[in-house]
Automatic annotation (TrEMBL):
<dbReference type="GO" id="GO:0006281">
    <property type="term" value="P:DNA repair"/>
</dbReference>
<comment type="similarity">
    <text>Belongs to the DNA polymerase type-Y family.</text>
</comment>
<dbReference type="InterPro" id="IPR036775">
    <property type="entry name" value="DNA_pol_Y-fam_lit_finger_sf"/>
</dbReference>
<protein>
    <recommendedName>
        <fullName>DNA polymerase IV</fullName>
        <ecNumber>2.7.7.7</ecNumber>
    </recommendedName>
</protein>
<dbReference type="Pfam" id="PF21999">
    <property type="entry name" value="IMS_HHH_1"/>
</dbReference>
<keyword id="KW-0479">Metal-binding</keyword>
<dbReference type="InterPro" id="IPR043128">
    <property type="entry name" value="Rev_trsase/Diguanyl_cyclase"/>
</dbReference>
<keyword id="KW-0963">Cytoplasm</keyword>
<dbReference type="InterPro" id="IPR022880">
    <property type="entry name" value="DNApol_IV"/>
</dbReference>
<feature type="domain" description="UmuC">
    <location>
        <begin position="5"/>
        <end position="186"/>
    </location>
</feature>
<dbReference type="GO" id="GO:0009432">
    <property type="term" value="P:SOS response"/>
</dbReference>
<keyword id="KW-0234">DNA repair</keyword>
<dbReference type="GO" id="GO:0003887">
    <property type="term" value="F:DNA-directed DNA polymerase activity"/>
</dbReference>
<dbReference type="InterPro" id="IPR017961">
    <property type="entry name" value="DNA_pol_Y-fam_little_finger"/>
</dbReference>
<dbReference type="GO" id="GO:0042276">
    <property type="term" value="P:error-prone translesion synthesis"/>
</dbReference>
<keyword id="KW-0235">DNA replication</keyword>
<dbReference type="InterPro" id="IPR053848">
    <property type="entry name" value="IMS_HHH_1"/>
</dbReference>
Length: 355
């Protein structure tokens, strides 16, 4: 199944947070890291500081020589973590299939949200706009049909960029890429590549798999594939949501059918909205109630087909309520849940022939 993967990465993350919180830092070279007089290293540098050649992992002492007029600040990890949490919540409001890679970046599988009316690129822009609205920070996104291409794409138009790699442009982009910019090529591999005269994706493309395996072992196979746009689109998700439910606790025990059914209708609508947002459908509807004596009862029903509208959910919840409810016993809590979730059909995806 052809997937749509977005990679989102915050721009100069720690430095941008510092510039957000200290207006006098804006437009200035900011270096976040250890003290310059000690053995500290640079965590990150604002784009203004990068012009001087300062970058992550550089000894602060060296940064200070390159950029003596920079503003050197210590990291505030608690603040970065709080921002990260907000970003992750935004991702999860779009899809459950999120794989965070660090505080400031994650992969999202948004295949099920894409339709003729809604391109993957417009979804990426929506997410970036939400991030900015909530945090006042810019991010960059990359969109493609597998993980590593999405990651390459997000780095191509920083800051505040959105880049799509598809079958029509993938080979051009990979040919022009510096070998060190391929995900999975670290410092050591990069040096070794260069000693073999492999400097770009085009150079890499020209090597046979066998020869790459001879020099790089198992990694050789993956490099051979990466030169050709081939890679996995499977995200490592910790927990895929199994159900979507809403419940209400009443301020007092209640026994009026009309009143309770009105609440069930509202709960059905909320569950329907959530299913709509994430483009899920579910096969099982559960109604749960807590009676005035604190006993909990629940009953479920399997639908013939996956359902997702408020009317469908309410239809099942209505029957379940009547099966469960003892007319003589008031209740204090009512809940409606839809489970056995699946993505709705993959609609209107353009399937390109591979190369
Ligand atoms: N970081 C760090 N040490 C490193 C690399 C990164 O402490 N060697 C921290 C600081 C960064 C954050 O992680 O702000 C995110 O790392 P990125 O590689 O995404 O770099 P930035 O977000 O800073 O910049 P870019 O705009 O290039 O993504
Ligand atoms: Mg970043």
């Amino acid at each position: 199944m052809e997937r749509r993967i977005i990679h989102i990465d915050m721009d100069a993350f720690y430095a941008q947070v510092e510039q957000r919180d200290n207006p006098e830092y804006r437009g200035r070279p900011i270096i976040v890291g250890g003290k310059s007089e000690s053995r500290g290293v640079v965590a990150t540098a604002s784009y203004e500081a990068r012009k001087f050649g300062v970058h992550s992992a550089m000894p602060t002492k060296q940064a200070y020589k390159l950029c003596p007029d920079g503003i050197y600040v210590r990291p505030r990890f608690d603040t970065y973590k709080a921002v990260s949490k907000k970003i992750m919540d935004i991702f999860l409001s779009y899809t459950e299939i999120v794989e965070p890679l660090s505080l400031d970046e994650a992969y999202l599988d948004i295949t099920h949200l894409v339709s003729r009316e809604r391109s993957a690129q417009s979804i990426a822009l929506d997410i970036q706009r939400d991030i900015f609205d909530v945090t006042k920070l810019t991010s960059s996104s990359g969109i493609s049909y597998n993980r590593y291409l999405a990651k390459i794409a997000s780095g191509m138009n920083k800051p505040a960029g959105t880049t799509v790699i598809h079958y029509d442009n993938v080979q051009d982009i990979l040919f022009g890429l510096d070998i060190g910019d391929f995900p999975g090529v670290g410092r050591v591999t990069e040096e070794k590549m260069k000693s073999l005269d492999i400097h770009t994706g085009k150079d890499l493309y020209e090597w046979e798999e066998k020869a790459l395996v001879q020099h790089f072992g198992k990694k050789g196979t993956s490099l051979h594939q990466k030169a050709r746009g081939i890679g996995t689109s499977e995200l490592k998700v910790e927990r895929i949501r199994k159900s979507i439910g809403k419940e209400t606790t009443f301020h007092y025990d209640i026994n009026d059918d009309d009143e309770i059914l009105k609440v069930i209708e509202e709960l059905s609508a909320k569950v329907g909205d959530k299913l709509e947002l994430q483009q899920y459908a579910g096969k099982v509807v559960t109604v749960k109630m807590k009676t005035s004596d604190y006993a909990t009862h629940s009953r479920q029903m399997m639908a013939n087909n996956p359902i997702f509208t408020e009317a469908e959910i309410y239809h099942y919840a209505y029957s379940l309520y009547h099966e469960l409810k003892d007319p003589d016993v008031p209740i204090r809590l009512i809940g409606v849940t839809v489970s056995q979730l699946s993505d709705r059909t993959y609609r209107n995806l353009t399937i390109y022939d591979f190369m």
